[in-house]
Design goal:
The protein is an alpha/beta fold. It has seven helices and ten strands. Helix content is 29%, strand content 24%. It binds adenosine-5'-diphosphate (ADP) and magnesium ion. Magnesium ion binds at residues 96-97, 218-219.
Length: 272
């Protein structure tokens, strides 16, 4: 384990540490869809920093293989605190995506628990988890997974519409976030009319439009060239600050990992 790595059992202990400086200017982030959440201003402490948010307890994941089982995660312990910017880094096949999916309740562990603010998520039904994710978590993946037949604006409106927001409110929220991400002139473009970096910005806007508490990203710059990849990397830190996010990124990219205040190294399904 390197010096930059905190012990998984005690968890990352960072305070909010800013990443690279902002290119976004003083944009105000409001709560636009009347979700009952308090307004968030950049830099405000709308969310208490440093509380235990997510805990993985002896998380094991295995798949049947032949007469035995293939163990992918071998008893992972982890504590993520609100306000953390955590990077989990490791080479391909280490189990990073599997762990991220389990932390984000997109998958379930074979054994072990995932707690969110002390609540055992592994006890919740799929429907309960879907509702929980819609409010609390945003996801960005290596490939943008935007819907080709919809515009950037419509793609970003989608989570709000699914959550019951009116078209007007959904549109206001989506426009605000796309503008924050520098895409005010691209609202009505379809994904095929956008560059790779722009597509990923739209995907980030879609992940954040419901103002989640946690943003999970899985190799979010893996499909971009170096210049655009670095811009998107820096954007994550700016958005973390602006939107009071807890940020959890998994990547094989050691240079990206160096930008994080907290880094955990993974190999063969366990911490190094
Ligand atoms: N559904 C599955 N069935 C069997 N093996 C799987 C499945 N999903 C992932 N794996 C295996 O788990 C290991 C870790 O995969 P993954 O979490 O995607 O690693 P990483 O994201 O670090 O590259 C890989 O060896 C992969 O082949
Ligand atoms: Mg992966």
């Amino acid at each position: 384990m390197s010096n930059s790595t905190s012990h998984p059992k005690s968890g990352p202990k960072s305070g909010p540490k800013s990443g690279p400086r902002s290119a976004l200017g003083g944009f105000s982030v409001r709560s636009p869809i009347g979700s009952g959440r308090s307004e968030m201003q950049p830099g405000s402490a709308a969310r208490a920093w440093g509380e235990t948010l997510i805990q993985a307890q002896v998380v094991t994941k295995s798949y049947p293989m032949g007469t035995g089982r293939l163990e992918i995660l071998k008893g992972i312990d982890l504590e993520i605190r609100s306000g953390d910017a955590l990077c989990i880094v490791g080479s391909s096949g280490a189990g990073k995506s599997t762990l991220l999916h389990i932390l984000g309740t997109l998958d379930r562990p074979t054994l072990g628990k995932v707690l969110y603010r002390g609540q055992d998520l592994t006890k919740k039904s799929d429907d309960e988890l879907a509702a929980f994710r819609n409010v609390s978590m945003g996801f960005v993946f290596q490939f943008h997974h935007l819907m080709a037949e919809f515009t950037a604006l419509e793609n970003v409106m989608m989570p709000c519409r699914i959550a019951g927001a009116s078209p007007k409110d959904a549109r206001a929220a989506a426009e605000e976030l796309l503008t924050l991400l520098g895409l005010a002139q691209r609202l009505h473009h379809h994904p095929s009319e956008l560059s790779g970096g722009e597509q990923q910005r739209v995907a980030i806007a879609r992940a954040l439009v419901r103002k989640p508490e946690v943003l999970f990203a899985d190799e979010p710059t893996g499909n971009l060239d170096t210049v655009n990849g670095e811009k998107i990397q820096d954007l994550f830190f700016e958005l973390k600050q602006k939107m009071n996010l807890t940020l959890v990124v998994v990547t094989h990219d050691e240079d990206f990992a160096k930008k994080f205040p907290k880094v955990l190294h993974m190999r063969d399904g366990h911490w190094l």
